[in-house]
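User: Second chain of the day. Same drill as before.
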Amino acid sequence: MAQAGKRGSNPAGPNGGRRTSKPHNDTRTSGGPVAAAPADALSSKLESRRGPVKVQLNTWVLASTEARLKWLVKNRQFTVTSVVDVALQELLDRYDVPPADPDGRIGER
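Assistant: Same format as last time:
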């Protein structure tokens, strides 16, 4: 059986597995309002969320959805994580899915 991946690739990457230090300019909190009042409510939901435990979620989306997501991230300076989290929370709320505790468990109704 053949191995998956590119032949001759270095799994540690071009830096041999070492992280490189690059300056990071975080402009999400600078500047004025991004859009009109309805977008302000959305923006407040999309603020950086530090603290809660996060888990990795991998999925496939339509190319058109990815293009729109990339546009939003670039032009409104949100993160993919925050956009996906808010969108999923709104969908789950719409369908009355019970909330989970901080450990990710859903209690009995």
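Confidence is low (pLDDT under 50) at residues 1-11, 19-36.

User: Great, on to the next one.
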